[in-house]
UniProtKB/TrEMBL annotation, chain A:
<dbReference type="Pfam" id="PF14054">
    <property type="entry name" value="DUF4249"/>
</dbReference>
<protein>
    <recommendedName>
        <fullName>DUF4249 domain-containing protein</fullName>
    </recommendedName>
</protein>
<dbReference type="InterPro" id="IPR025345">
    <property type="entry name" value="DUF4249"/>
</dbReference>
Length: 277, 801
């Protein structure tokens, strides 16, 4: 029996798709009126001069333009109640490449359990406030890696990070793995997990075979403030819903009141490992 | 026990009404001797024919066969002509001298042209619809469905149901049903009495019901008979064919994306029959060939493997003059796979239903019969993800073991009483997770499961009070037990018909329904990964009530039936979920639920014609659906507690279906649908998000600015506040029947054009980020509309011998 040549199938396929044009078309969408809100991003870190970015949200389809309000007064309240002003001095951190609008003058002193406050007020009366408590330190217990049996040219290793979740409930983590010491570049791996199924147990996070002999891997394990975890999750859900016909849009769950954004204290441990051949 | 309390006065009134119906006074005519004419209506081959009409014109009375093809009429002694009719079959007239209780089997012969039953049916079905008290019911003949144009030529009975008023489709091409403002999980799908938890293949594009194996479909939208329960919005009752009791047949079809094959024939010299039907798609045959041809190309990304199949089996056997046994089974699976040797990635995703039904039918006497049915239902999905040495398995399942017994008692020609009991043991595998590595360095598992038991007692009486007034009243008592939680509820049902004249009927109905199982999903559509969850802890049973009323007019000498129905439905304990809810493998999943109320209302206008060379229908629905999920559980509710429309709320829905018999060989069909667009939520605002250090640095080589673009994060306004453009689609079909083979075999080509006008209907809209190709910097945003199916021609070759 002679099989039909593939071109006949191709012809049928072409017929099926005869009417296919673009599946995506530009659309004119009249969006409802939207009132801009203050947006703050502030990640406090012990030993680092506190800085903060204050911007404004805008109508989605508006032109791309910087929306940095210049009239916002920002104060941090320390655990002892003292106020520390952050000064309006827009810039870009040369190390992290991150933008900020306000910055302090002295490195932050903080320990787990300390609670800080944020107060941002503009001349229109928009007032953003928030509090954040530094989470407990959860150390990386150890790391490990293992190369596969592939020939030298294609030999790769997976990487494991071990830590123990404390007995407290509602702990959230973020693990970043960077190649080399470029810890401010895009990470190779960026995982976020909750302890709801692993409370109080040892946790192992692994990668696929992706690291080469001679690579240096820096693992950074953040123990997240639950409010920050929720904010980040809502941001992810909101992004994923745009363009996903099955996605359900999520509201943004800010950690601050009176605006949008996040105010949190970071606590992380870091380990750098050289992957010997 | 938590009793779901009805208004006591209403309950007493209802019980009184049911009681009155059961003991109502006998008419004077009963002084004359009366006998019962009963039996079964079958196709000449042997299959029973549910819904066939059995009329005695001399007495201006008649009835329709029930779901197992049985009928019963109690008449004064005498000599009568009995007319038996059914869509697609020649009418049969039989002389009966009724001097004692008599039982017959009426065999109907298929019309000469097996595909064109639309031209040979009598007006009986429209008269039946006019005179039945049942409202909001649609009967779909599978032969009718086979004539209509279909996406990729795949006949789909659920998509045919979507062409009926009051039934909204999900998205483009989806076989999901949204009935009178209810959500997709509020439909009870029954295949030979077994519950089908996921009625679709390929993420909702095709239904699991193989048209070659299906005999009939009944959709109930209101006035639900008391034997049905467990879902709020509709009952889709699908019956499988039984097979030819006299001859062996092979039937099948070759289509663009799938092929079908059916075998049927007699068992033990006509004492029984069987049918075995299978269907399989072959996307994977082409994609594998394509992948093999390109495997050596650099940067080639293989196309994932996907196919689905289903198998239906049914056998029946006559044990004796009063006993029949029926066994039916279904097995369907979708299989999706993707693997890449280069990256060590292997992904497999399988899901599907497994069903089995064993039914014993026993006739005690012409007035009383019983069907006792045992069913097993299983739905599960398994997702396996292997990345190098790591494996990750995720799954969920639900399994039911059910037993029910249904009595039908016809004491006289004025009462048709149904009563029975049902019990179901549910096994919910809400979530199963297993993660591990080949070397044992990672090993983790979790399993969340529950059991529940559900029971029901029901009684209903279809009572012909006078020639003008007919009442179908029923009461169902349902109960549920899971863990330490017990619920019970009374579900009154009432349907009435009052004939204003021979051609005009006034109808009204009321139904209260409880739903004890809930679909856990955070998407707008039903997906294979959706989880079924029992009523337990804070998750109370959902409840709905519906009132509807309408008028039916038989026009044009019985050629046309015009029906207008209005309805109002309201529900409580309607469910939604918190934003960012953890739905998978969550032992405290009940805390993620949000509860609220729903209400919907609308008007359905329906004109149908079932005789002549040109038949079809026109349906128009004007409808509203609303939800309210208020602040609770530390949230502001959905939509900040404000009323909102579900995404399937569509104001207007117009369908036109035309079937035309051009000649004995050619049938032409067309269907047109116009609906308001789906509702969706588009972001109104955006803000930039940088994230922590080292998480969002633009390191693309073309980025010469050295800067980073904060990620644009959408800010959504009210839920479902934006309506997509109206949906409009014209489908065309042609059935060309080839000359019969020498052995009498039948063959035809069925041509379909889906979306003949090539309209770009909106599947969804989204906002796209525009970037500079050199620097990768964001330069703007624009709105995009995505369409799914353009003009799609298809051809299917069908045969039967």
């Amino acid at each position: 029996m002679k099989l039909l040549p593939f071109r006949y199938f191709a012809a049928v396929g072409a017929l099926v798709l005869a009417g296919c044009g673009k599946f995506s078309n530009d659309l004119n969408v009249p969006l409802p009126a939207y009132d801009s809100q203050l947006v703050v991003e502030c990640y406090l870190e012990p030993g680092v001069v506190p800085s903060l970015a204050v911007t404004e949200s805008q109508t989605y389809l508006s032109a791309v333009a910087p929306t940095v309000p210049t009239d916002v007064t920002v104060n941090l309240s320390m655990p002892d109640g003292t106020l520390v002003p952050l000064y309006y001095k827009p810039g870009q951190d040369p190390l992290t490449q991150k933008f900020y609008t306000h910055i302090g003058r002295a490195p932050l002193v903080a320990k787990p359990g300390d609670t800080f406050g944020l107060d941002a007020l503009d001349t229109k009366g928009r007032h953003v406030t928030g509090t954040a408590t530094m989470p407990a330190t959860v150390p990386i217990d150890s790391t490990a890696y293992k190369f596969n049996d592939a020939p030298n040219a294609t030999r790769k290793a997976y990487f494991l990070t071990y830590f123990k979740d404390p007995a407290t409930a509602d702990d959230d983590y973020r693990l970043q793995l960077h190649k080399g010491l470029r810890i401010y570049s895009s990470p190779e791996v960026d995982l976020t997990i909750q302890d709801r199924l692993l409370n109080g147990q040892p946790v192992t996070l692994g990668t696929s075979y992706r690291f080469l002999p001679g690579d240096t891997v820096t693992a950074t394990l953040y123990h997240l403030d639950p409010a920050f975890y929720r904010f980040r999750q809502s941001v992810t859900d909101a992004r994923n819903a745009n363009g996903n016909p099955f996605g359900q849009p999520s509201a943004i769950y800010s950690t601050v009141q009176g605006g949008i954004g996040v105010f949190t204290v970071l606590n992380y441990t870091r380990k750098t490992v050289f992957l010997s051949k | 026990m938590q009793l779901i309390i009805l208004d006591l006065r209403r309950l007493l009134a209802l019980l009184l009404l049911v009681g009155l119906l059961l003991v109502t006074a006998r008419p004077a005519a009963w002084a004359q001797a009366r006998y019962t004419l009963s039996g079964t209506v079958r196709a000449a081959g042997g299959e029973v024919l549910p819904g066939a009409s059995v009329a005695v014109p001399a007495l201006n009375t008649g009835t329709a066969t029930d779901s197992v093809g049985h009928f019963s009429l109690t008449l004064p002694a005498g000599r009568y002509q009995v007319v038996v009719a059914f869509v697609g079959f020649e009418s049969l007239t039989s002389d009966v001298n009724l001097t004692r209780n008599q039982r017959f089997v009426y065999p109907l012969t298929a019309s000469e042209n097996a595909l064109d039953e639309v031209v040979v049916q009598g007006t009986q079905t429209l008269e039946q619809k006019l005179k039945t008290p049942q409202m909001g019911v649609e009967h779909i003949s599978i032969r009718e469905a086979k004539l209509l144009p279909a996406l990729f030529g795949e006949v789909d009975i659920l998509k045919t149901l979507q062409l009926k008023p009051g039934v909204q489709p999900g998205g483009e091409g989806s076989s999901g049903l949204f009935v009178r403002g209810g959500s997709a999980d509020q439909n009870l799908f029954l295949l030979d009495n077994a519950v089908v938890y996921n009625p679709s293949h390929l993420f909702g594009l095709f239904s699991v019901f193989n048209s070659d194996a299906v005999q009939s479909v009944d959709l109930y939208k209101a006035g639900f008979p008391a034997q049905f329960g467990g879902r709020l919005s509709s009952v889709v009752d699908v019956k499988l064919r039984e097979g030819d009791r006299q001859h062996f047949h092979v039937e099948g079809g070759l289509g663009l994306i799938s092929s079908r094959l059916t075998l049927e024939g007699p068992l033990n010299k006509g004492k029984g029959s069987f049918i075995l039907s299978g269907r399989r798609t072959y996307f994977d045959v082409f994609t594998r060939a394509y992948n093999r041809a390109n495997v050596n190309k650099l940067d080639f990304t293989p196309i994932p493997d996907y196919y689905f199949y289903d198998l239906n089996f049914k056998a029946n056997y006559t044990l004796g003059a009063h006993d029949n046994l029926y066994l039916s089974a279904y097995l369907g699976r979708d299989k999706f796979g993707y693997s890449s040797n280069a990256s060590g990635f292997d992904f497999n995703f399988n899901w599907g239903n497994t069903l089995a039904t064993l039914r014993w039918s026993h006739v005690f006497n012409p007035q009383l019969l019983v069907n006792t049915t045992a069913t097993v239902t299983d739905y599960q999905y398994n997702l396996t993800n292997k990345l190098d040495q790591f494996t990750f398995n995720l799954g969920s399942s639900i399994r039911d073991y059910a037993l029910r017994t249904d009595f039908e008692y016809t004491p006289n020609d004025r009462h048709a009483i149904k009563f029975g009991a049902a019990a179901t043991a549910h096994r919910f595998g809400v979530g199963r997770l297993q993660a591990g590595s080949g070397d044992g360095s990672v090993n983790f598992g979790a399993d969340v499961g529950y059991t529940a038991n559900e029971g029901a007692l029901y009684v209903g009486d279809n009572f012909r009070a006078t020639d003008k007034l007919q009442i179908d009243a029923g009461l169902r008592l349902s109960a549920w037990h899971s863990g330490t939680n017990n619920y019970a509820g009374l579900e009154p049902r009432l349907s009435t018909r009052y004939s204003l004249s021979d051609n005009v009927s006034l109808k009204a109905s009321y139904a209260l329904m409880y739903q004890y199982v809930h679909l856990v999903t955070n998407s707008g559509a039903t997906l294979p990964t959706d989880i079924w969850y029992p009523s337990r802890l804070s998750v109370m049973p959902q409840r709905s009530q519906q009132v509807s009323t309408g008028m039916s007019f038989l026009l044009g000498g019985g050629k046309y039936l015009l029906t207008d129905e209005v309805y109002y439905k309201w529900g409580k304990n309607q469910i939604d979920f918190k934003d960012g809810a953890q739905l998978f493998v969550n032992p405290e999943l009940d805390t993620e639920f949000l509860f609220g109320k729903s209400w919907s209302y609308g008007n359905e206008l329906y004109l149908e014609k079932k005789t002549g060379k040109t038949t079809g229908w026109v349906g128009y629905t004007l409808a509203w659906a609303w939800l309210n999920i208020g602040p609770q559980r530390g949230t502001t509710g959905v939509n900040n507690g404000q009323d909102y429309h579900p995404n399937y709320d569509r104001r207007h829905n117009l369908t036109v279906v035309v079937l035309h018999q051009l000649n004995t060989r050619i049938s032409l069909t067309a269907s047109y649908i116009f609906t308001s667009g789906n509702l969706t939520t588009l972001p109104a605002g955006r803000f930039g998000f940088q994230d922590i250090s080292g998480a969002n640095i633009n390191t693309n080589t073309g980025n010469t600015t050295g800067g980073t673009d904060p990620r644009p994060i959408p800010v959504y306004p009210d839920r479902n506040s934006y309506r997509l453009i109206p949906y409009s689609r014209l489908d065309l079909g042609l059935v060309y029947k080839l000359r019969p083979t020498q052995r009498g075999g039948e063959r035809d080509f069925t041509f379909s054009i889906y979306n003949a006008t090539n309209r770009r209907n909106a599947y969804f809209d989204y906002f796209e980020t525009v970037r500079d190709k050199t620097t990768d910097r964001i330069t703007g945003f624009r709105a995009q509309q995505v369409s799914l199916f353009p003009f799609i021609p298809s051809v299917t070759y069908n045969f039967k011998f």
